[in-house]
Automatic annotation (TrEMBL):
Keywords: Glycoprotein, Protease inhibitor, Serine protease inhibitor, Signal. This is Macroglobulin domain-containing protein. It comes from the Eukaryota. Residues 34-132 form the Complement C3/4/5 macroglobulin domain.
Amino acid sequence: MLLLPLFLWILLVSNTLVSTQICSETACTVLSVRFIILVPARLRLGTKLNILLEAHSLSKPITVKVIVYTYPRKYVLTQDSAILNSENSYSALKTIEINPNLLLLETKKYKFVTLFAEFGSFHKAEKIIMLSFRSGYIFIQTDKPVYNPGDTVHYRAFVSNPEFQAFNSTISLEIQNPDGIVIHGRANASASNGILSESYTLYTVVKEGRWKVVSKFDNVKENTFSVVFDVKKYVLPPFNVTLTPKKSYLSLDEEKLEVEVTARYLHGEPVKGVAFVLFGIEINGVKMRITSMKQLNDVSSFSNSFLP
């Protein structure tokens, strides 16, 4: 018997005990046969799903037919069969997949499917199962949260299946302005190894506010994924950086040069950040740079010293 993770198998379609009579030339025997069908609680479009089929107390091979219909029963979405025999201990795992294109035009109408299984001439089982239109997830990321008009928006999409594993798929991408109007779009974009990178340059005259990047799977457009970013005019505040040596002159015999570094905005507030300083000397009009670089991790204090 197959051992399966319990979290994958949460819906029991059928666990039925059937009594059947088997006759030979001399006598007839009544057997009690148990048939089991185990499926996920939801069937996802475009995703491979497993169905467990079992028959107990049988002594001869049996063919099991599995058919998935639309609900109410109208037409076939997918079908398959399996043979249960002594070689597989009368237990088989079948993989089915529903083509999303079969329901592409009617996804609003069909929310359930009918699963039908026929165990030869012994038993038939039928169950209505909920249909899931989520074929995966799309995570969108922009390089900045705020852009100036005229800036280039760099963004990328990470595509995964319902188990959060990256996979190749085609998706649609749109950029919408604050009014929800699509300014830029691309359909059937291929996400190689689950990653798609794109860019869009904003016009210098655009509507400021909260913009949005929207993405959908091309095969199932019921699910949308989005991320927002702001477009507004902003200017980084100017600041001054001052390097002041402790001495106004340097003797050739001295082993060090001590310099104070200060960084302040024009309104007087200290600047918080990292400073990199290069030193050089000038001899007879020729400027030479000292190759070593000094790093200061905090320039927010009033002054800092470097010893080159």
